[in-house]
Amino acid sequence: MTRTILAFAAAALFATAASGAEPKQLPRPALFKELVDCRAIADGAARLQCYDATVAKVDAAEQRKELVIVDQAEVKKARRGLFGLSLPDLGGIFGGGDDKEGGTNALGGVNEITSTIKSAKMSNYGRWTIQIEDGAVWVQTETRTVRTPKPGQPIRIRKAAMGSFFANINDQPAIRMMRLN
After folding, report:
1. What is the pTM for the complete model shown?
2. How far apart are CA 89 and CA 96, in angstroms?
3. Terminal Cα distance for the chain, rounded
4. pLDDT (tens digit, 9 = 90+) per residue, 19-37?
């Protein structure tokens, strides 16, 4: 079944960006619209009956996993976990844009992450494969020499030109990397 993502607390995510870029608006799911429409009922008893019936439908849909309700914190966590992966356009759910203020763009998308190295190993070709705290695996795409990365060292990975990424390991000069998983 098609899952519908309903982000009650993520309204700011879909607001117009300060840069003037117009974000994609997700249409309201029919069940959510039905719930909101209960407010228009003038009679208090009828309005309460509408709310009770519609909330029961929302709850049942969520139980069947036809409706997924997430808050803005969960969306940010998902964006961070997906950083570096090539994904199809998901209808604006995970943001977009290029404002690099504070590591996120104007729509809340992630432009960089800071983490800790969990493990590092060098390939036969002299390139590093690095796993970070969250389990993401990054591989060096150029043969630039860097001091040996060690578990526990900080790593900062940020977007670069044309879909590539730069990583600074323990404040060393940046190397080009790509995400494997």
Report:
1. 0.54
2. 10
3. 26
4. 344 455 667 888 889 999 9
